[in-house]
Amino acid sequence: MKIAINFRSFIYSMAMLIATIFACLLALNISWLGLILLLVLVFAPIITVFLLKKRPQKYKIITVGLSALLCFVAIIIFFITVYTWTPSQIEDNVYKVSGSVEDNFVIDDERVVVLRNVRLNGEEVSGKIKVYVIDDEKFFSLIPIGDKLEFSSYVSVRKIVDGYKVNANSLRTNVRYLTWINAENVNVYEGNQTVLDKINCYVKNTLIDCMGNQYGVIAYGMLTGDKNEISSTARDMFSLAGLAHILAVSGLHVGFLTSIVMFLLRKLKVKKELNLCINAAILFVYCVFAGFSPSIVRASIMFLIAGGATILGEQRDSLNSLGFAATCILTFSPFMMFEAGFVMSVGAVLGIVNFSPIISRGLSKIKIPDFLANAISISTSAQLGIIPASVCFFGSLQLYSIVVNILLMPLMSVAFIAVFLALIISIIPIFKFFVTASGFLIKIIATAAGFCAGLPLAQIPIYATGGSLLIYPLYFLMGDFVGCKKKWILSTACATVIIALLVVLLVVG
Questions:
Q1: What is the pLDDT of the chain when averaged over all its residues?
Q2: Which among 34, 45, 11 has a CA at the least distance from the CA of 82?
Q3: Does position 52 have pLDDT exceeding 60, yes or no?
């Protein structure tokens, strides 16, 4: 049976990088097996190209060679990160700690402070330290961002890799140490805020002042992805309703932001080239504001590629753009492969690219209007793309997520845009009531999330391992990018292999 697979250079490089990163993790635990697999992954594709065809197409040779080079770079960065994450002389012990306050918040009645520019026993160390404060009595609520703290306490060093468990969130936030202190044992010194500190403080304080703490912190999470001050009850509520993605900046937020900017620039009749440059600058600032969340970086790269293709008159290729964005991220930040936000972001786009056209065609056949068919197909396919990652990282399936997102997506779009524009207008004090008004939309979304979370069987627990991510190759085979007369045979065979592997992993686990 002849199988035609539409070759995508960056999908190939992304797949190679994913396999290489997992091989690196295997090498840390079973060194000889991991090293053998790494050698196979780096050299086998190059040898295969020359063995299968005397004169392979030039772009495929370049793709394979570039992929091998990028994999080599990722391997180096992976092991350098593992062995330099914390200095060898730093271990769990009592230290004299000093640092500047980067974040200061209360979560579930517990005061947490994050310090940057950390010094242990007077020596500067890389990374940040998260401080849990005991017996606060509201003293720390008066300490602004930028002030310097000094205290002595027992410091615990966070490992980035522990067996097969990877603390990707610690890497992304750069929090390398943990400690617990009593408020009365801390010395506080006046410090300075950075420009970014001032912007963050203004946005957060404005939202909380105008919307109240409950909805203000949710709105702040929607804009920045910072969920630190959102209570675990509220986060669980959004998660059970299948709306957790709106509290983590993603391609959805990039779409909202760029739609605002592009609409305004079109009205001003700005040329396409300048339009793209302005959007690129705004997206870069937003990435900085959101702490370079992997999902927003992925979405920004894909938007810029699409915009560049339009200007050059080239055809857009969403699948290859996804591969390019993921390749860039994984090459220089290989541990993002273990970050839930990154995997769910890539999975959502893969779901949209693979399933949205198929679902849209099916809905059109039953005479559903195009605008509604497109909305349903995009939301449904995105949720299908998220399911394997959700099962892998959270061990659960949100039963109503597809329906809830279809119903609430228009409202979420309006809410994001309203809050964003209201914050800009609120620079003039008399217009702060616009922020208050936009808070009603946040309240409606939160109320809807609470209602859906309370429905029977809102969340179905599923015991799974990382093997559930093997479903993504099956998604690829089921899409329009693989063409064969009896695709169902290929898909069934792939599904059988995946199920067998999952059973083995569950038994071994």
A1: 81
A2: 34
A3: no
**Nearest Cα to Cα of residue 15 among 323, 222, 322, 295:** 323
Q: Collect all residues with Cβ–Cβ distance below 8 Å to 366 and sequence separation of at least 6.
A: none
Structure tokens at 107: 């979560």
* Section 383-393 average pLDDT: 83
Reply yes or no on whether the pLDDT at 402 is more than 90. Answer: no
CA distances from 312 to 59, 219, 273, 276, 364 (A): 20, 38, 10, 12, 32
Q: What is the mean pLDDT of residues 487-502?
A: 61
- The fold of 93-189 is OB fold (Dihydrolipoamide Acetyltransferase, E2P) (2.40.50)
Give the distance between the most distant pair of CA atoms in the chain: 76
Handedness of CA 327, 329, 335, 340 (dihedral sign): negative
Say how far apart CA 443 and CA 432 lie, in whole Å: 17
Percent of the chain with pLDDT over 70: 85
Q: State what percent of residues in the chain have pLDDT above 90.
A: 11
3-state secondary structure of 482: strand
Residues 266 and 263: their CA atoms lie apart, in Å, by 5
Which tokens hold the place of 369?
């209007």
DSSP code string of 276-297? HHHHHHHHHHHHHHTT--HHHH
What is the rounded CA–CA span in Å between residue 411 and residue 212? 20
Angstrom distances, CA of residue 279 to CA of 18, 153, 302:
30, 46, 12
- Give tens-digit pLDDT for 220-236: 888 887 787 888 888 88
Contacts of 155 by beta carbon, 8 Å cutoff, 6+ apart: 92, 93, 94, 95, 97, 120, 129, 177, 178, 179
| Beta strand ranges found along 108-186 (DSSP E) | 110-120, 123-124, 128-134, 148-157, 161-162, 165-166, 175-182
Which is nearest to 136 in space by CA: 190, 186, 177?
Answer: 186
State phi, psi for 193 to the nearest 5 degrees. Answer: -95, 145
Give the pairing type, strands 396-398 and 175-182.
Answer: unpaired
Mean pLDDT of 234-257: 77
Sequence spans of domains, the chain = 4-84, 93-189
Please give the Cα distance from 379 to 397 (Å, whole number).
16
